[in-house]
Amino acid sequence: MPGLGASFGRGAATNFQQDMANSDCILFMGTNTAEAHPVAFRWPMKAKENGATLIHVDPRFTRTSALCDVFVDIRAGSDIAFLGGLVNHVLTQDKWFKEYVLAYTNASSIIQDGFRDSEDLDGLFSGYHGDGATGKYDAQEGHWGFTGCGNQESGAGANGTMLKEEPGIQGHDLQGGAQAHSAPREDVAGADEPLRDPTLQHPSCVFQILKRHFARYTPEVVSRVCGCTPEQLTRVAELLCANSGRERTTCIAYALGWTQHTTGVQMIRTAGILQLLLGNMGRPGGGIMAMRGHSTIQGSTDLATLYDALPGYLPQPAADKEHETLDEYVKHEGMTTGVWADFRKYIVSLLKAWYGSAATPENDFGFGWLPRVDADYSQLAYFDRMAKGEIKGYFLFGQNPGGGGPNAGLHRAGLRNLDWLVVADWFEIESAVFWRSDPTGPPPADIKTEVFFLPAAAAPEKEGSLTNTQRMLQWHHKAMDPQGDSRSDAWFLYKLGKRLKELYAGSIDPKDQALLNLTWDYDYDEEPRLPDGTRSRIEGEPDLEKVLQEINGHRLNETDPSTREPKLVSSFSELKADGTTACGCWLYSGVCPAPDRNRSKERVRTDNPLHPEWGFAWPDNRRVLYNRASADPDGKPWSERKKLVWWDESQRRWVGLDRPDFEVGKPPGYRPPPDATGMAAIGGDRPFITKPDGLGWLYAPAVKDGPLPTHYEPVESPVGNLLYPKQTCSPTVRMFDGPLNRLSRTPTGEFPVVATTFRLTEHYLSGPMSRFNSWLNELQPEMFVELSPELAAERGIVHADWLTVVSGRGRIEARAMVTRRLRPLLIEGRIVHQIGLPFHWAFAGEVVGGNANDLTSLVADPNVSMHESKAFACQVLAGRLEGTAAGPTVKAVRWPIRGGIPVTPTSAQPEGEPEHG
Ligand SMILES: Nc1nc2c(c(=O)[nH]1)N[C@H]1C(S)=C(S)[C@@H](COP(=O)(O)OP(=O)(O)OC[C@H]3O[C@@H](n4cnc5c(=O)[nH]c(N)nc54)[C@H](O)[C@@H]3O)O[C@H]1N2
Ligand SMILES: Nc1nc2c(c(=O)[nH]1)N[C@H]1C(S)=C(S)[C@@H](COP(=O)(O)OP(=O)(O)OC[C@H]3O[C@@H](n4cnc5c(=O)[nH]c(N)nc54)[C@H](O)[C@@H]3O)O[C@H]1N2
Ligand SMILES: [Mo]
């Protein structure tokens, strides 16, 4: 999540769900938390009981809106305008938290002379190369950098610059692709402090640029872009301001309503600016809660399921960069100041974890064995190539792109072009039965793909750790062996690795050495047992606790007396760059600090409301990131009510409820000597320690589509850009235009209705985990589309009757849900209709129906290759679709089930106790 990473340093939720109970105000925007995170929603409800004000800003009135105090409906995709209006209010009404902003943000930094803002250039920043529709920025040429941060070595200009040659570029940038999530490659190279103007008067200081940039986002303009009233914007702004400051804190929660846009990263950036100006970061009840999706999605990004990141957000070495040797890689990707100054320790320890004794100083610790990124392997770009027939085979573990991928029709066309496909899943999903059941596909005889279906073990049939929204690792235990031939994903991958190693054994071909030298030794020492003490039936299951220990890290030159194995490290601060430590992911260090201690298994309740002994949160079990900012520059809590971590002068250390996200012994008054490097360069009053200057970045030149957020329309919108008429959508978007992905560019007349997609509590994602379940199907039986009575009347559509939705990619039918949850919006002086589509149905399962993703498109934002399924253009018609419809692929289970409903004893309920908070 580079929106957060660019602003604060780390791309993850800053606080934890339970902490929302401490908020005085919560802005839910781009999330339907009550529906999609119903368990977490109890803490906002607690806050409400305590008198907090809850606000929901969403295109639709939802279950969340119903429980909030204030609801504002806006047009999908117009969030930067709304948030920009909030920023403008804070600045023009002089409501920003002065001491906080001056001390903890880069408001006073002075930007280079040649920088031109989007306000000056009709919607473009300086340094743009392209045709206004697709293109990219050269941040250096555009002078986005800070003044006075010379670093001649990295090719900086004579006037000094803080930009590396090309900020945050990876191999896939060869194809104009995205950069890794919040990777360390900051644009700041120099250890020098940039020039600052603490009076904030300099016309080129960040604060003044910010003021000018957002001046046009007045309540009236926002109203014309978003469709809300000017008073609604002002009301929300006043609530946020009244609930921020020394005594009070506001939290902002978002999820996909923000991320799934071509401007999503910048929406999150605007929230970051707002929270920094209001002084809400690093404080209880404040922060930004990125509500993460399914289990361990946070863990997946931490541990590098992203093709362009190694574990712990180290960038994957790239073919087109100076990454030939370890030294070059560290020089170009590491930083001299802040936490990332230890970059070499992290990468060397990772190489030691992977290649063991084969990794030596002489061979660069095997750095040469790491594959180099040479193209964009993100899902969208990859399936685009697959649909063009450029990919031969594919493994699909726990994903259903043929049902849930944006433009699912194109994804299925890709699958049809493969020679072979392995699907490991619980169900025969769309991506496994596309060759026989896709009503829009060719006959099976015309499809060449050979599909291997592997039955996957379900969650209770395997163990392991998950990392959830609040960066917390929690272990889950295995309850029983998998049924029949099902196996855990780990079993399959472990076996596959062993077989490949056997196959290549003895090879002296240099390209095989990476595989042959990989440590692959996770066999159980003792036969694994089930909870009832019996032996597991499964042969060859890997011991995932060993994997977690490898991730945690070891001291290779010290032996643990109890195990006679290398000693485990207790924190990433112990890691070394000389090959004497091994660590699979520096961020997770500390989760297994001793052989008999796996902190992800810990479930101890203490008096501390942060429950530090429940699971383990990265980094270093810190629950609120940047929590040094909960105290003032002198180290005293901003207020008694909002205290969290503070400086204890008598003990000469930071103390409090949370583990300090700061060097514990560094006094508030510490000022770095000139030329200091590493953590020594971070002053005692600089809480954002993963940023090279320790500050929160209001202005962030590392983001590819601009250092400040700017309102652009979605790629497909019925209206033009009111703020920058010459620049309709984001100028750095990547389009995958083609016959399988027909786009209807902004402003489109052909498709006048704005469509957005959403979730229901009763279903899960593209539906495999719920549409094969009779009981859930009974609760939400059929695909429907939410539309306003006005739109229904215009099109002659009757509630509960059929309607058809058409986009450039396809057409689907659904039942009409005519409802006042959506209302026609007045945009630019004309009526714009919106519809909402759940995306849980497709053609496999016991209920089938129209798939919203047969309408969505393949477009990618420049930072993370994110699609725009939350705002696209469509047309709505009365009546059914012509042609064949899918039938259920499995039979519904009859009710009542044989043997009646099982009675679950209280002792088998979670925690065995009926605790309701
Ligand atoms: N029961 C259930 N729970 C789930 C899931 C599920 O499928 N079922 N999925 C899980 C996953 S993987 C995820 S990522 C999360 C997602 O959690 P959420 O993001 O909260 O869920 P969504 O319903 O996709 O979208 C949230 C809201 O965004 C609104 N929205 C759409 N476009 C815009 C826009 O442009 N601006 C604004 N402000 N709002 C907009 C939608 O109307 C919707 O109300 O949920 C997780 N939880
Ligand atoms: N239009 C639109 N499209 C969207 C979204 C949206 O808001 N709007 N949301 C997007 C989001 S946030 C997400 S996360 C994606 C999700 O998209 P997917 O990742 O494709 O999610 P699912 O459709 O649930 O498919 C997951 C599959 O994993 C299987 N599975 C579950 N557990 C295991 C396991 O332990 N092992 C194995 N091997 N398989 C398992 C399930 O049976 C299921 O078939 O959808 C995206 N698509
Ligand atoms: Mo998700």
UniProtKB/TrEMBL annotation:
Checking CDD domains in the record gives: MopB_CT_Formate-Dh-Na-like
Q: Where in the cell is it found?
A: Cell envelope
Molybdopterin oxidoreductase domain mapped to chain residues: 17-498
InterPro entries assigned: Asp_de-COase-like_dom_sf (IPR009010), MoPterin_dinucl-bd_dom (IPR006657), Mopterin_OxRdtase (IPR006656), Mopterin_OxRdtase_prok_CS (IPR006655)
Q: Name one Pfam family in it.
A: Molydop_binding
Q: Which UniProt keywords apply?
A: 4Fe-4S, Iron, Iron-sulfur, Metal-binding, Oxidoreductase
Its cofactor is: [4Fe-4S] cluster
SUPFAM superfamilies with a match to the protein in the record:
ADC-like, Formate dehydrogenase/DMSO reductase, domains 1-3
Q: Where is the Molybdopterin dinucleotide-binding domain?
A: 755-871
TM ranges are none
Where are stretches of biased composition, namely Basic and acidic residues? 183-196
Superkingdom per UniProt: Bacteria
Residues covered by region (Disordered): 156-196
| Gene3D superfamilies (UniProt xref) | 2.40.40.20, 3.40.50.740, Dimethylsulfoxide Reductase, domain 2
Q: Which family does it belong to?
A: Belongs to the prokaryotic molybdopterin-containing oxidoreductase family.
Identification of the protein by name: Molybdopterin-dependent oxidoreductase
Source species: Gemmata palustris
Tell me the lineage of the source organism.
Bacteria, Pseudomonadati, Planctomycetota, Planctomycetia, Gemmatales
